[in-house]
From TrEMBL, chain A:
GO molecular function terms listed in the Swiss-Prot or TrEMBL record: 4 iron, 4 sulfur cluster binding; metal ion binding; oxidoreductase activity
GO CC aspect terms: plasma membrane
Domain of life per record: Bacteria
Full protein name: (Fe-S)-binding protein
InterPro entries in alphabetical order: 4Fe4S_Fe-S-bd (IPR017896), 4Fe4S_Fe_S_CS (IPR017900), HdrC_iron-sulfur_subunit (IPR051460), Helical_ferredxn (IPR009051), NarG-like_sf (IPR036197)
Regions annotated as coiled coil: none
Ranges where the 4Fe-4S ferredoxin-type domain occurs: 295-326, 358-388
Gene3D superfamilies: Alpha-helical ferredoxin, Transmembrane di-heme cytochromes, Chain C
Keywords, in A-Z order: 4Fe-4S, Iron, Iron-sulfur, Membrane, Metal-binding, Oxidoreductase, Transmembrane, Transmembrane helix
Listed transmembrane segments: 6-21, 67-89, 109-130, 151-170, 212-230
TrEMBL record, chain B:
Cross-referenced PANTHER family: IRON-SULFUR-BINDING OXIDOREDUCTASE FADF-RELATED, IRON-SULFUR-BINDING OXIDOREDUCTASE FADF-RELATED-RELATED
Pfam families (UniProt xref): CCG (PF02754)
A molecular-function term among this protein's GO annotations: oxidoreductase activity
Gene source species: Marivirga atlantica
Protein name listed in UniProt: (Fe-S)-binding protein
Domain of life: Bacteria
Keyword line: 4Fe-4S, Iron, Iron-sulfur, Metal-binding, Oxidoreductase
GO CC annotations, alphabetized: plasma membrane
InterPro entries per UniProt: Cys_rich_dom (IPR004017), HdrC_iron-sulfur_subunit (IPR051460)
Domain Cysteine-rich, chain residue ranges per copy: 23-109, 150-237
Length: 436, 265
């Protein structure tokens, strides 16, 4: 009989582990559908960026109020999860609060710290629900459907999980005098406010509530972990690799297309055109679909938490154009998920759809001023501009579907060596005016 | 005021004489062809002459860096331009380049190295700041900008793209002017609307032109001068000021023009 709960716990753990690892494998495969790009250099600089930007939340603090509440949830998540270790050991071994006798008074201090953080997380989640739904902040009010629900669900789930911890501790304290299985731990400050709710209950009822809260919390955490992989909330993990592998070159620098360089060199007869190797098969110039992008772009799409700071700063979006850098990232994620699902189902890789066209329109891509405001604004160094520019390359080089004025500009550069239609012989005429 | 004859030596002339300049002034297409920006090219040329900088231009041998083609997606055209420019620059053994265009600056500095062109490239704001710091340009006390409110509009390709925020501001402060900041400035500066090849096409449908949004913000500071360091920003802000019918009271000037005016050039 005593083993039943242990077996049940192991089963829960195994199912959660299986589902989670399968899902993580799927995401990894999806990201690897992207084109290769080498980001194995400058490990020191990359580690520093990850520590400052992801771990240290440096860019979040450009907006102090949300940064403060976000930090509470972040710190709470990191620290409260230490307790999950005890949950797992207790669950497997059939023990109860196995660390309490080992740590003694320190255990009481630790649990009190966890409770303090639980209350802080709870408050922060309430503040965020108010910000999202009541204050009319544009970057939230512009979300609808699943992304809006997703944002609220995460906050509600976190609030419920925090209540589960406090309920569990409150009933535990009441049981400590009545059931020898419940180790004496000393008082927990915050959950003692909840004890009046349970004081009239019988020992068996208390026992039921305490166990229910315990199971609810651990299953809740495991379920939440799985949910997160389908949600924008995945940033809690992806922020780390995304900041590590982010670009380190100046923001203004566009990535050189080496496959084009080879051809241009051959055309001009310069440089190392002597390497007589036939040019590697070039799949496509620029990006039409999500898997034409680099893996770093796809990782960025999974890291995006849809906060909308990018779109809030985008000059095109501010002035009513359709372009929204946040939508670029959300569309990229939706499309690579779709491609991944097709592959999983053994469907042909071509489903007649593509990121450019079915998700993102030319109008959006053409509206970008490449000002880098979105890149600067992203708290975890996602680069929507990189995706936009790769789509422009596809439109210009594969489809010749750039706006007519751009085609004229290209022609001017080609024939007059200036984007305007002035004869190159007039280029130096300005010098005649220097002395009068 | 100065009766001096300003010289504009070309690389070709210098090379024929077996000389090489300290720095190449990359004028850019806007600086060569755009009527408004030609005045900036001339102002900067006068400063270089006054200070006695050993400089040269490419003159008719200069060609578009390829920036608008690359931003528009035409990588082939960009690389063709870049490689033929690199051939010209390397042919003259150019080491140091100064330019008054942040787009040329960004492309020459960041994007030419991958195609084999390695130069020490500075934007003219940094160059002017250097001249002031080294005492080569001493700004006149009580010049025409003393105490006047000047706001600086950050060019995206100078600011966010390359992290140059302070050099242009130092130049303005050296004029004894009152530097006033717009609500969105430096890393949060709002684009004028012309970057990323937008200069060469109409904007997509929306409810406002970006340059109007930015001009309104600049006018809100109460500045008499909107200072810029980019030919595209200059056009966009100039158009914005005209649209708001403020061209009588608010001027859009480049940093080189501010200094040239102070020096009476």
């Amino acid at each position: 009989m005593a083993y039943i709960s242990q077996i049940a716990f192991l089963l829960v753990l195994a199912v959660a582990g299986y589902l989670l690892s399968k899902r993580i494998g799927r995401i990894k495969k999806n990201i690897q559908l992207g084109k290769d790009i080498d980001r194995s250099d400058q490990k020191g600089e990359r580690t520093k960026n990850m520590l400052l930007v992801a771990f240290g939340q440096k860019k979040m603090f450009k907006k102090v109020i949300p940064a403060f509440f976000h930090f509470l949830i972040y710190a709470g998540f990191l620290i409260i999860n230490l307790e999950v270790l005890e949950f797992i050991i207790d669950g497997i071994a059939g023990t109860h609060r196995i660390f309490a006798p080992v740590l003694g008074d320190f255990y009481t201090v630790a649990i009190n710290i966890f409770e303090f953080l639980a209350v802080a997380v709870l408050l922060a989640c309430v503040v965020f629900l108010i910000r999202r739904n009541i204050l009319g902040i544009k970057r939230f009010t512009t979300l609808a459907g699943w992304p809006k629900l997703d944002g609220n669900l995460i906050l509600v789930i976190e609030i419920i999980l925090m209540f589960a911890i406090l309920t569990m501790n409150a009933t535990d304290m009441l049981l400590q005098g009545n059931d020898p299985h419940y180790t004496q731990t000393g008082d927990f400050f915050f959950s003692s406010f909840l004890t009046p709710l349970f004081e009239g209950m019988s020992v068996s009822a208390l026992h039921f509530v305490e166990r229910f809260a315990w199971w609810f919390h651990i299953i809740g955490i495991l379920g939440f972990a799985l949910y997160v992989t389908y949600s924008k909330h995945l940033h809690i993990f992806m922020a780390f690799p995304n900041t590590y592998f982010a670009r380190l070159v100046p923001k203004g620098q566009m990535k050189n297309m080496d496959e084009v360089t080879t051809e241009v060199k051959a055309m001009l007869g310069v440089g190392d055109a002597g390497s007589s190797e036939p040019p590697a098969e070039i799949a496509r110039f620029g990006a039409k679909d999500a898997n034409d992008l680099f893996w770093t772009d796809l990782m960025g799409a999974y890291a995006c938490t849809e906060c909308g700071r990018c779109t809030e700063q985008c000059p095109a979006n501010i002035t009513g154009k359709k372009l929204s850098p946040r939508k670029i990232m959300m569309d990229t994620r939706d499309r690579i998920e779709e491609i991944g699902l097709n592959l999983q189902a053994g469907k042909p890789s071509e489903d007649g759809k593509s990121l450019l066209g079915d998700y993102i329109t030319a109008e959006e891509v053409n509206a970008c001023t490449s000002c880098n405001a979105c890149v600067e604004a992203c708290p975890i160094n996602i680069n929507p501009l990189d995706i936009i520019l790769q789509m422009r390359r596809y439109m210009a080089m594969e489809e010749s579907s750039s706006p007519q004025s751009w085609n004229s500009m290209f022609q001017n550069v080609e024939t007059n060596f200036a984007p305007w239609k002035f004869p190159p012989t007039d280029r130096f005429n300005w010098a005649d005016k220097v002395n009068n | 005021m100065s009766d001096k004859t300003y010289k504009v030596p070309t690389m070709q002339e210098m090379s024929a004489k077996g000389e090489s300049p300290e720095v190449l002034f990359w004028v850019g297409c806007a600086g060569s062809f755009d009527d408004r920006y030609k005045a900036v090219t001339i102002a900067f040329t006068k400063i270089l002459n006054e200070v006695g900088i050993n400089f040269a231009v490419l003159g008719p041998e200069e060609s578009c860096t390829g920036d608008p083609a690359r931003r528009g997606g035409n990588e082939f055209l960009f690389q063709m331009q870049a490689m033929s420019n690199i051939q010209v620059l390397d042919g003259y053994n150019v080491k140091k380049i100064v330019t008054a265009c942040p787009h040329c600056f960004n492309t020459l500095k960041n994007e030419y190295p991958e195609l084999g062109g390695n130069y020490d490239v500075v934007h003219h704001s940094t160059f002017l700041q250097g001249l002031i710091n080294d005492g080569k340009v001493t700004l006149k006390d009580g010049g025409e900008f003393k105490g006047k409110k000047i706001t600086f509009h950050d060019s995206c390709y100078l600011g966010r793209a390359n992290g140059v925020y302070e050099a242009p501001r130092d130049v303005i402060k050296a004029l004894d002017a009152e530097l006033v900041e717009m609500k969105r400035c430096k890393t949060k500066g709002l684009c004028c609307g012309a970057g990323g090849a937008q200069m060469f096409k109409d904007a997509e449908p929306g409810n406002k032109e970006i340059n109007i949004e930015r001009t309104e913000e600049a006018l809100d500071t109460g500045a008499e001068v909107i200072a810029a360091g980019c030919p595209f920003c200059m056009t966009m802000m100039g158009d914005g000021v005209k649209n708001k019918e403020k061209e009588g009271s608010v001027k859009v000037l480049d940093l080189a023009e501010l200094i040239a005016k102070n020096q009476g050039l």
